[in-house]
């Protein structure tokens, strides 16, 4: 087949405009496919890395996904709180290394407020083992001090020293504000790509303090309001929290402690393994990501079909060329090989170009993706799965190339040396 | 008696099994180095005969030998190779591969034929030198050789086609109405160049045309209708 390959190359060059456009469409479709695959892998990893280093999440009995949603993502609300006494009893379990209580329920302009303690900054991990880092400032120390997640700070353009008023309840509109007890920003966290970016963190005592004068879930009457100074004078030790993160001395004890919590006699409690529940949640929302991959796979099919159509459409004009090659001694199998290698070369080139495009775009967009969406898309060598996709595209190109090749084969047999116009 | 270049006996051919034969030739031959003018209007079976000689189609009956080789006994792959090695074709129009330069068009048969490469080597030349030599003999200026085939005039294209048919000295050159796209002066000039070159290389020429005025330059003139019994409307 050596006489054919140079011809194939020259023939492709001769039609560089049409074929170039076809090549671009194949390259774009391949880039879309690989890009979607890459993004969804990163999204899944980022999602699975939303919380790490925590062995169990503890909450009131209810759905495990619900517990994960409100404790980690700040979405939805807890049906019940946990009493501080139960929490202390569980923290005293010999296998428990640390416990970070979480208190939720307030918000600021749609962003959830998280009451917690210093242990949160020490024990919270994301993306396997990255600890929280500081963009500016330091953890809260005083009662009315507050730490911002990176997204909150960026979106609402807050800086250190700004005064912030929290609102009672979740949501964006018509909430009653704790306007009598404003907070001061003392720290801003680095971006993590996790729900922490969207959180405002205060101490558990602060949560107690802003509600100290509330009665039965209703704001105080104007004459019963307490000032910040007055509130600080009360016993602000938390009586109830929403959830808690648990770290164990040994991961092997996780089921033992989980059982201990789930069967705790004092209060109906629930402990979940964050990794397993994240996976459960991803399986629920992962359908969208599968659909996206399926769509981009179809785009590749369309690209290859377009390529095949262009080559076949060109055959009509090339019947003379094929007859001339036949007269020079080319056999029908040479003709088959010529057309098959043209299509195959194009789909191969399209795949490589698409791969290059993905890297180019990654290089260009990764700072933006990381800062805006918290997606860390590295310039890694293609994963096994991406190679599989590329191989599938090239395999598809091979199958697609058989159509024009077969058609040219039949034409060259039928036409022989007859030069048809 | 030497083996004729082309020998046809009791040949019957039809394009499709459900159609009547379009070629029935009892006897027809071409000697080595002979220049034959095969005269026939369209529909007289010219393209069928050329397909059979080229081994692109196969006769259902009879014998067709080219250079002593019974074409029907060769496999299709061997027929393609045989055509590449021993036959040179020139067609009526648009003879060239449009995306190759004139020079690459001339060199094309060497890609398919080791025998042609060997012939050129035996003459002490490289394929490039041989292509340039043929081009010079056929009155093609060197500056045209690097041009894409599409940029050449029809007359130049036909001379490139002739050079391509002749490179590596095939024993039989088949020309199918090669001059019909040229005006009268150029027809004569082209014919002179072609026949001189074939004479030099010793190739037999099977020149097919409907234009009987060109016949005087040939050793022999054969009316295709007279030997093809399969075309009833040709006989009165």
In short:
Chain A has 421 residues and is of the alpha+beta class. Chain A has helices at residues 4-14, 16-48, 64-73, 84-91, 119-123, 150-156, 204-210, 228-232, 254-262, 274-315, 319-327, 332-373, 384-415; strands at residues 56-60, 82-83, 96-102, 106-108, 111-116, 125-126, 130-131, 134-137, 145-148, 163-164, 167-168, 183-189, 200-203, 240-241, 243-248, 269-272.
Describe the protein in words:
The complex is a heterodimer of chains A (421) and B (236). Chain A contains 13 helices and 16 strands. Chain A is of the alpha+beta class and 421 residues long. Chain A folds into two domains: 4-47 and 286-415, no CATH class; 50-281, no CATH class. In chain A, the strands form four sheets. In chain A, strands 4, 5, 8, 9, 10, 11, 12 and 13 form an eight-stranded mixed sheet that branches. A four-stranded antiparallel sheet of chain A has the order 3-15-1-16, with helices on both faces. Chain A has a two-stranded antiparallel ribbon with strand order 2-14. In chain A, strand 4 (106-108) and strand 5 (111-116) form a beta hairpin. In chain A, helix 10 (274-315) runs antiparallel to helix 12 (332-373). The longest helix of chain A has 42 residues, at 274-315. The two termini of chain A are 27 Å apart. The model of chain A has no long low-confidence stretch (mean pLDDT 87). Chain B has 236 residues and is of the alpha/beta class. Chain B has one domain (6-234): 3-Layer(aba) Sandwich (Rossmann fold), CATH 3.40.50. Helix content of chain B is 38%, strand content 20%. Chain B has helices at 46-53, 76-86, 102-112, 114-122, 127-137, 142-145, 154-166, 184-201, 224-227; strands at residues 6-13, 23-30, 35-39, 61-66, 69-70, 87-90, 172-176, 204-209, 220-223. In chain B, the strands form two sheets. Chain B has a five-stranded parallel sheet, with helices on both faces. In chain B, strands 2-1-4-5 form a four-stranded antiparallel sheet, covered by helices on one side. In chain B, helix 8 (184-201) links the parallel strand 7 (172-176) and strand 8 (204-209). In chain B, helix 3 (102-112) packs parallel to helix 7. The interface between A and B is medium-sized, with 26 and 31 residues.
